[in-house]
């Protein structure tokens, strides 16, 4: 008998391999990145159907193969339906899904944490009723996934002298991985000046749990969120093991 396994997984990408079959790249709760062949998926009669669409979470059953596993059953856990009727939300979700596929690994030791974070993010952005809310979910996701994968940002104290900056003049450095005080910033050439309010805002989002409602949920404007998403986008791209493709799509909704 063939060996089978079950796992909860979210679809990230798909590739055609023949006239009727596709390979689905997924992020699973138990094993991190996994690939599976969806046989007959391009036929109208396919029993897997819409469950193989991108950004759908399924409870999957796979047959272990020599080189590739085959998807034999999928039961939808969440289709994040409201993502699909809003272009902005969909683009943001595609971008975050690329972060997962770039930073996730096979047999990922952090798989459960990353899966849960990505699931919560998709649920939250799907439900968001205002653009600012959707953008806040993206920001939380960017900060938290970097934290889990070992690229955590230092947003409270200066990364060099480890003291809380005492002047309003604060800088952000991608290479240094966080904020710099006025004095320490003098020796660093690549840096951007950021307002103290932005530092406080991002630090609050990083420190609070994903679902915690902060004062910024009511205060954050589209403009501030956009500046911050872009700042973190550059940070994430710099440390990414793979090149990003969706960042151009992000530019189109700015
Ligand atoms: Zn310093």
Helices and strands, with pairings:
Layout lengths: L3 E13 L5 E7 L3 E7 L18 E7 L5 E10 L8 H17 L7 H17 L3 H18 L21 E4 L4 E3 L1 H4 L6 E3 L1 H12 L8 H4 L2 H18 L7 H6 L2
Parallel strand pairs: 3-5
Antiparallel strand pairs: 1-2, 1-4, 2-3, 4-5, 6-7, 6-8
Helix pairs in contact: 1-2, 1-3, 2-3, 3-7
Bound molecules: zinc ion.
Description:
By secondary structure, this protein is α+β, with helices and mostly antiparallel strands. It folds into two domains: 75 residues, OB fold (Dihydrolipoamide Acetyltransferase, E2P); 172 residues, de novo design (two linked rop proteins), CATH 1.20.1440. It contains eight helices and eight strands; from the N terminus they run E-E-E-E-E-H-H-H-E-E-H-E-H-H-H-H. The longest helix has 18 residues. The protein is elongated and about 65 Å long. Bound molecules: zinc ion (ZN).
Which CATH architecture of the largest domain? Up-down Bundle
Class by alpha and beta content: alpha+beta
Bound small molecules, by name, code or SMILES, are: zinc ion
CATH topology of the largest domain: de novo design (two linked rop proteins)
- Low-pLDDT runs: none
DSSP, total strands: 8
What is the global morphology? elongated
Give a quick account of the main beta sheet: strands, pairing sense, barrel closure: 5 strands, mixed, barrel
Q: What is the oligomeric state here?
A: single chain
* Intertermini distance: 53 Å
Number of domains: 2
Order of helices and strands: EEEEEHHHEEHEHHHH
Please compute the radius of gyration using only Cα atoms: 20 Å
Instruction: Give the full name of the CATH homologous superfamily of the largest domain.
Output: Recombination protein O, C-terminal domain
Strand order of the largest sheet: 1-2-3-5-4
């Amino acid at each position: 008998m063939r060996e089978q396994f079950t796992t909860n997984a979210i679809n990230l990408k798909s590739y055609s391999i023949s006239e009727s079959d596709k390979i689905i790249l997924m992020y699973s709760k138990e094993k991190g990145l996994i690939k599976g062949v969806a046989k007959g998926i391009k036929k109208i009669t396919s029993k897997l159907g819409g469950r193989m669409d991108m950004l759908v979470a399924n409870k999957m059953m796979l047959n272990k193969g020599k080189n590739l596993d085959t998807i034999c059953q999928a039961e939808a856990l969440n289709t994040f339906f409201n993502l699909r009727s809003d272009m902005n939300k969909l683009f943001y979700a595609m971008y975050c899904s690329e972060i997962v596929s770039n930073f996730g690994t096979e047999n990922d030791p952090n798989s459960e944490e990353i899966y849960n974070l990505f699931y919560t993010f998709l649920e939250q952005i799907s439900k968001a009723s205002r653009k600012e809310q959707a953008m806040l979910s993206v920001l939380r996701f960017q900060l938290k996934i970097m934290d889990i994968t070992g690229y955590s940002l230092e947003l409270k104290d200066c990364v060099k002298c480890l003291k809380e900056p005492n002047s309003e003049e604060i800088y952000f450095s991608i290479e240094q991985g966080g904020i710099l005080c006025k004095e320490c910033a003098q020796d660093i050439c690549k840096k951007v000046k950021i307002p103290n309010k932005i530092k406080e805002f991002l630090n609050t989002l990083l420190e609070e749990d994903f679902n915690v409602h902060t004062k910024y949920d009511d205060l954050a404007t589209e403009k501030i969120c956009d500046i911050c998403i872009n700042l973190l986008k550059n940070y994430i791209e710099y440390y990414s093991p793979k090149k990003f493709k969706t960042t151009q799509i992000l530019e189109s909704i700015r």
